[in-house]
Structure formats: structure tokens, C-alpha cells
């Protein structure tokens, strides 16, 4: 092949790559949507309050019912986010959830990614729980619990789920708090289209001290507010789904830099109070994705619960994203 032909072939190849990249659907993880643009009420319709500009929605739990909403579409991967303010005062038995699931479509093999916020008695903090199910792995719960380094009832804080083909990352105020890899979780990694949900409900039978403290409706209604709603997802069965998944995998939330890994390690060291990876009573054989760190293991009982967690002043935030 002549030099001219080689040069022309190289130019043509570069042009084709450029066209392919340009045609790749953009994934804007910073964009937010109005409630009506991406969501629809799920239950407790009278307990769903929408702001005049439709950018904030409040879910109420009272004696009659809880409430919830669901995304209008199903997604095959995406970045899902909301700024949430939790109910204050006595909230024992109350659970606020922000999660993806397909349990209504695949009841026996459902996938799920959870943020669950567990209420508490007066003077005790809310606890945040993350979890993952894949292919119906409900008997292999991967729960982790944390106390938050701020009061989640006084102002909004951002909670995000990044679900890409090769990993899941949970974020709090743009700081990663948990990273799960597809390669290590195997068949238990979520792989089917899911919807996004937000709910508030009565979980008196388990949420606070194993059901010892129940919801007291004298303190109700319990109000959880959501704003800055983000649905940067790849719609299931869309012609651009594959390109969207590629773009999502290259987006900022999917890239775990060294600084992000360090910030995540710091958050977990300071705030994690339960991990299934250290719960040898429940799981004598650790899960494949568990990175067992001996110095960390020594801080947990064989029940997976933290031995002791030094109380820190509420109001201190996780590391700033600018530092990452």
C-alpha cells in the first residue's frame, strides 16, 4: 500500500471514530428534571405534595398511609440522584427509601439498588443503609449501614446511585461511600431494566432496634422532601441504549479516581456501623466482592456490627468534591 493510500485510510478511520464518538448519546449527570417530566405518583396520592414549579416533591406518612413515586420509564443503567431532607424529631419505625428495582416486572429474579434511611427515637441519629440484589438474590442481602456526618433533617443532602455495566457506586453529597464491581459480584449484579422509586412507609416491625420502637403517629405526619431530581439514565429498549451505556461508563461518577477512593475509605472508616462482609454469623464464607482489611475487621464484631464508634460533632460534612 502506498504512503498516500495509508494516509487516506488513517484519515478515514479517524473520521469514522470521530463520527461514532459524536453520535454517542451524551449523559448529563448534572441535569435535573421537573417531577412531571420524569416521574409519576405510585401510591398514597393524597400524601404527595408538589411545589408550584414542580421541582420539589414531599412524601408524607400518616395514620392512613405512606406514599411514593416511580420513574415514568425503565432504565438499563443510569445515574439517579436526589437531594433529600428527612423528617425530624421522633421517627422510630419510619423508613424513607430511594432506590431502583424491577420487582413488579421480575418478581422471582428481581434486581435492586437501595438507599434506605432508618428513623430513630428522639436524640438518636437516622441511619443510612445501602444494599444490592441481583437476579433474585434476596437471600444474600448485601446490607451496609452508616451514621451520617451531618443532620439530614435540617437541610437537603444529595444521594446518588451510579449503575453502570461494570460497577455500582453510591454517593452522598458527591462523595462515594460504596463501590461494587460487576466482575466480583457475578450473577448477583443487577442486569435487567429497573425503575427508580422513592417512598416513605411504616416499617415498625424491623426498622428501629429490630422492631422494639414503633412509629408513633403523635409525631406525624412524617415528611420527606425531594428536590434536584436527576434521571440521567439509558432508557430500556432505546436504539441508543448501547451508546448511552458507553457514555455513562465514561462519566465523572463512574470514574473512581485515587482521590475518590481515599475519600470513600475515610467515610467508611468514620461512619460505617454494619457490614455484611464482617457478619460471619450470617455469612461464614465472605462474598467474592468483600475486601477484608485486617485493620478494619478488628473494629467489627462477628455479627458485622461496629464495636464502638466515636461520636463526632453533627454538622461536619464529608470531604469536599473540590478536593477530589
TrEMBL record:
InterPro entries: Beta-glucanase-like, Beta-glucanase/XTH, ConA-like_dom_sf, XET_C, XTH. Its main location: secreted. It comes from the Eukaryota. The active site is at 112 (nucleophile), 116 (proton donor). Transmembrane segments: none annotated. It is found in: Secreted, Cell wall; Secreted, Extracellular space, Apoplast. GO terms for molecular function: hydrolase activity, hydrolyzing O-glycosyl compounds; xyloglucan:xyloglucosyl transferase activity. Coiled coil: none annotated. Its EC number is 2.4.1.207. It is an enzyme of class 2 (transferase). Residues 19-226 form the GH16 domain. Keywords: Apoplast, Cell wall, Cell wall biogenesis/degradation, Disulfide bond, Glycosidase, Hydrolase, Secreted, Signal, Transferase. Residues 1-22 form the signal peptide. Pfam families: Glyco_hydro_16, XET_C. Contains at least one intrachain disulfide bond essential for its enzymatic activity. One of its GO terms (biological process) is cell wall organization. GO terms for cellular component: apoplast. Belongs to the glycosyl hydrolase 16 family. Catalyzes xyloglucan endohydrolysis (XEH) and/or endotransglycosylation (XET). Cleaves and religates xyloglucan polymers, an essential constituent of the primary cell wall, and thereby participates in cell wall construction of growing tissues. This is Xyloglucan endotransglucosylase/hydrolase. It comes from Triticum aestivum. The lineage of its organism: Eukaryota, Viridiplantae, Streptophyta, Embryophyta, Tracheophyta.
